[in-house]
Amino acid sequence: MYKSIREAVGQNFTIGIRISQAKVNDNTHKWTGKEQDTEIIFGQLGKAGLDFIHVSEYEAWKPAFDTSGPSLASLVKKYGKAPVIANGHLEVPKRAEEMIENGEADVITLGKGALANHDWVNKVKNGEPMADFNPEEVLSPNVKIKEFEL
Fold first, then answer.
1. Domain 2-109: assigned CATH number
2. Helix (H) or strand (E) holding 34
3. Residue-wise pLDDT tens for the chain (150 aa)?
4. Where are the domains of the chain?
5. Which pTM value belongs to this model?
6. Is the Cβ–Cβ distance between 113 and 133 less than 8 Å?
């Protein structure tokens, strides 16, 4: 598939993939083959020539399997041989920074943390506290005026 996409868009277009071992309705799901599965999956993705591999875990900094060992992002680095984007509750600046500094990821992304803190970068730069994610404020549009909107 990668080759077809590359042919269609040319060399000056970035192509990557986002992958997670979790499922939409089960963020604790783990691949049964553990690190052997990561070697196969990320090894093949790396050989495809992708410009990046974006990996998502519920908590990106934690071990990919069991209670110890490397994170999934680290395993992408090890087997994928491509720049790694990591996602998964990295709105705490120290966690994001450690993943970059430890070489586990080249870039981090934010989901709920960015929805709660649209100015996350400035808050980090200025040492300001982060707002907690509140789905009511972001994901549940309602024509009624809510207390926090007054």
1. 3.40.50
2. helix 34-48
3. 888 999 999 989 999 999 999 988 888 899 999 999 999 999 999 999 899 999 999 999 999 998 899 999 999 999 998 999 999 999 999 999 999 999 999 999 999 999 999 999 999 999 999 999 988 877 766 667 767 777
4. 2-109
5. 0.85
6. yes
